[in-house]
Design a protein that fits this description.
206 residues; alpha/beta; Rossmann fold; UDP N-Acetylglucosamine Acyltransferase, domain 1; 2 domains; eight-stranded mixed beta sheet; six-stranded parallel beta sheet; 2 helices; 12% helix
Length: 206
C-alpha cells in the first residue's frame, strides 16, 4: 500500500492530501504540533511533527512558512527518509521542466518548457510559470500569480496572489511580493514589495 505522511494539518495540508490521493497514495496520515488535533479533513492526525522519525513511508511537508518548511525538509532529508513531490494531474508541465523534492504543483498550474523549480516550493492553484524560469528553493508562487519568460525567483521568496513578474526579471532571496503587485525591474534587496509598479515598503513610514 502506498502511504504518505504529511507534516502540517491545515488548509494547505488538505490540498496536498487531495493531490496525493490523485497521485495514487492509498493511505494518508498527518502529523501536527497543535494540541488535541485528531483529524484533518477525512485523515487522522497521528502525532506531532517531530515524530516523523518513527515512520518509514513517503513524507511531505505542508507548511506555509518557508523557514519551518525548510527546517522539517532538512531534518527529513538528514534522517534518510523519502520526500514526495506532488503534482496535480490537471497541471500542465512542459518539456524539460525540473521539479525539486518536496514541491507541490496544484490544480490549473502551467509550467512551460525548460523551467527549473526548486525543492519544497509551493506552486499554487492556477499560477503560471513561463519558459526558462528558475524558482528557488522554498519559494511560494501564489494562487493566480504569473511569471513571464526567463524570470528568476530567489530562495524563500513569496510571490503574492495575482502578482505579475515581467519577463527577464530577477527577484532575490527572501522577498515578499504583495498581492496584485507588478514587478517590472530587478529586485536585488530583500524586503516586501507592493503596488503597480512594485516598490519596496518602508515600514518606518507606516
Amino acid at each position: 500500500m502506498k502511504k504518505l505522511m504529511i507534516i502540517g494539518a491545515g488548509g494547505h495540508g488538505k490540498v496536498a492530501a487531495d493531490i496525493a490521493k490523485n497521485n495514487g497514495y492509498e493511505e494518508i496520515v498527518f502529523l501536527d504540533d497543535k494540541e488535541d488535533l485528531t483529524e484533518c479533513g477525512e485523515y487522522p492526525v497521528a502525532g506531532k511533527g517531530e515524530e516523523f522519525r518513527n515512520y518509514t513511508c513517503d513524507m511531505f511537508v505542508a507548511v506555509g512558512n518557508p523557514s519551518i518548511r525548510k527546517k522539517y525538509q532538512e531534518e527529513i532529508e538528514g534522517a534518510g527518509k523519502n520526500i514526495a513531490t506532488l503534482v496535480h494531474p490537471n497541471a500542465i508541465i512542459g518539456d524539460n521542466v525540473k521539479i525539486g523534492k518536496g514541491t507541490v504543483v496544484m490544480a490549473g498550474v502551467v509550467i512551460n518548457s525548460d523551467s527549473v523549480i526548486g525543492k519544497s516550493c509551493i506552486i499554487n492553484t492556477c499560477a503560471s510559470i513561463d519558459h526558462d524560469n528558475v524558482v528557488g528553493d522554498y519559494a511560494h508562487i501564489s494562487v493566480g500569480s504569473h511569471l513571464a519568460g526567463t524570470v528568476h525567483i530567489g530562495n524563500n521568496t513569496w510571490v503574492g496572489i495575482g502578482a505579475v513578474v515581467n519577463n527577464n526579471i530577477n527577484v532575490c532571496n527572501d522577498c515578499m511580493i504583495g498581492a496584485g503587485a507588478v514587478v517590472i525591474r530587478d529586485i536585488d534587496t530583500a524586503g516586501t514589495y507592493i503596488g503597480v509598479p512594485a516598490k519596496k515598503m518602508d515600514f518606518r513610514q507606516i
